[in-house]
Amino acid sequence: MLTLILPPEQHELLLAALRKAGRREVGGILMGEHVGPNLFIVREMTVHRRGAFASFVRRIEDAMGRLRAFFQQTGHDYTRFNYLGEWHSHPSFAPYPSRTDDLSMLQIVQDEEVGANFAVLLIAKLELEGGLIATVHTYLPDGTRIQSNIRLQSG
């Protein structure tokens, strides 16, 4: 089972994006570092334009510049630093993938041009008290979706 570690700076960025988006969905991509067997740290994440009440449209062109810069900063060491997947919010619903989410993630992980062995989907929402509720799911090219772990790293 994959574990995704969210460092304090990424946790704060995510909370700020959720607060700003309010009742609208928001999302972006996750870039990270492979630090152990099935263990990844989110090193960067993008925040794209807000979506609608119950939908968020992924626009990869919004993230390509940041993804290229990330690869350059990490010396194009793709086995250690790479695209991990996507994130978006479900402000009005439980933070679990919808059928549309599943299809979108499978499209990514099964795209031969992407060449991914897996892709993660982090779905987040704010608790009433302002804290974070999040789930992580790993998608494999064979069509499997696996519930994964998220660990918030303390500062």
Helix content: 10-25%
Largest sheet: 7 strands, mixed, barrel
Work out the radius of gyration: 14 Å
CATH class descriptor name? Alpha Beta
Q: How many domains? A: 1
User: Can you write the helix and strand succession as a string?
Assistant: EHEEHEHEEE
Binned strand content: 25-35%
Oligomerization status of the protein chains: single chain
Biggest β-sheet: strands ordered side by side in the sheet: 1-3-2-4-5-6-7
What is the CATH-assigned architecture?
A: 3-Layer(aba) Sandwich
Average residue pLDDT: 89
Folded structure, characterized:
- This protein is α/β, with parallel strands linked by helices and 155 residues long.
- 23% of the residues lie in helices and 35% in strands.
- The chain contains 3 helices and 7 strands; from the N terminus they run E-H-E-E-H-E-H-E-E-E.
- It has a 7-stranded mixed beta barrel.
- Strand 6 (132-139) and strand 7 (145-152) form a beta hairpin.
- It starts with a strand and ends with a strand.
